């Protein structure tokens, strides 16, 4: 059977659904080069362990010309190119190529490998992309034959723009100082005692190389539909959406700037680029935007963006007692220029609308369009947007919150510098010549049967791709993860636990008015990683999750439950009276005191907290997990590598837990 089984929580029961696991790092593009030691000291077994490691690493990334690309080179007495960056356009193809890499035996001429990567692999004709992050991952189990040449080759590689070198030393024969020199810095140098421990580095290596959002400046202009059909709650939803997306970015003159315009019968700009240079003042200004009312003259709004917002102009701004002052506002010369258009109907002047949209396209503005409701003209949406991948459709403005993370992720892909060189020369490698661009739809799956049908349909459909729906929207929820960090977890298992928590939190709009997260770890003792109000946005929460460390020790689950009950849901620690309170317990074994654990779980239930229990492996106590779980139905997976199978179902359960 293709795919993996995912649990789908439907009320109090579990339903099995077939679904594919998607690579989790799929945002900012990067070029990866594996430089593998194939010398005699590696042995065939050790070399195969290296291949398994880089295969597992690669599985975390989406592969493609605008996503991650991979290359592999082996070295021993000589150098062998296994495949260049532009030879494989899919993850499956890369993994197949890795599996075919042969062990060669010989000496350890690391310098030859480093020089080959610099002079050949990282060249444009072999797929290296300008202004894209490049990671060279060197794996070796010994000292190089010529240290001085290796040092020279490493220094030359460090001078290549956008290159980060990660050096992994395996075993006791390595030269640690040489390893530090090969790596970009000591934070990118790793040592494991033997090949069997390579897998313990996977999560950390993914964290170091998976860039969720580019750091190139972006000028983002929102164009809001302010026509007669968008009054009251509909307009509030549009305005809240603008705030939600804005809140995900760093607002300052060196990062992201935001402008907001509206259209109805006429158009109006409420906020210009750099008018509010910090997030607090910008969000306050967005909250003050008022509905205009009128007809749907979409073209007037698009012209407003082209002729005013994306132009550097002097504007007369009222400054209180100082009267009106002329101030220059507009986009920056070195920035990604992005427009997000919201509309709920057909434009009154379709020809003028298309002309205005094309003008924005010709100015280099990436135009996204969100069609809200059933009155939109889909062909018109496609012509307004830069391409079909920039088109989103939802059933109503109530669902804007659900897609805000999709919009943020799309913007993040654009927060990279534009190419500064001519297109790559054609190589002998055969790549697909056409790519079917898929229209992005957001399907609102509120009914469990529809979810099952959509998941099955999504595996076979072609032009339509169903984007993950964040069912929580703006419903407040306080979610605490209680994580087993005991000895039986081992570093690898705990790393997968953290990766699961990280991927889970990524899907939500995080903030004081929406979903808040906290994390507590337990073993022999309890450690609070962060409270619900420690971090107020997704970026900071994800960074904090990545920093959670393994503890080791016993399995005092009762201690963790008691800590959560006594501390995590206190108002001073961020708990809100209007929020659904949820605890997700992940453990791989029986607690040290089962009676105390069941008692603490019952006390937590009596506080109105919804508790979900996730048991990993064969050593869990099912009766204990049933007692921990609020509905008496724990979620079980056979090992940590399958945690991702239950992610979607647990998100659904958490979102709908209080409804």
UniProtKB/TrEMBL annotation:
**Know the name of this protein?**
VWFA domain-containing protein
**Keyword Glycoprotein part of the UniProt annotation:** yes
Subcellular location, record wording: Secreted
Tell me the organism's taxonomic lineage: Eukaryota, Metazoa, Spiralia, Lophotrochozoa, Mollusca
Q: Does the keyword Repeat apply?
A: yes
Main location per UniProt?
secreted
Q: Give UniProt keywords alphabetically.
A: Glycoprotein, Repeat, Secreted, Signal
What positions belong to coiled-coil segments?
none
Q: Which residues form the VWFA domain?
A: 31-209, 219-411, 478-650
User: Could you say which residues form the signal peptide?
Assistant: 1-19
Give GO cellular component annotations, separated by semicolons.
extracellular region
So which domain of life are we looking at? Eukaryota
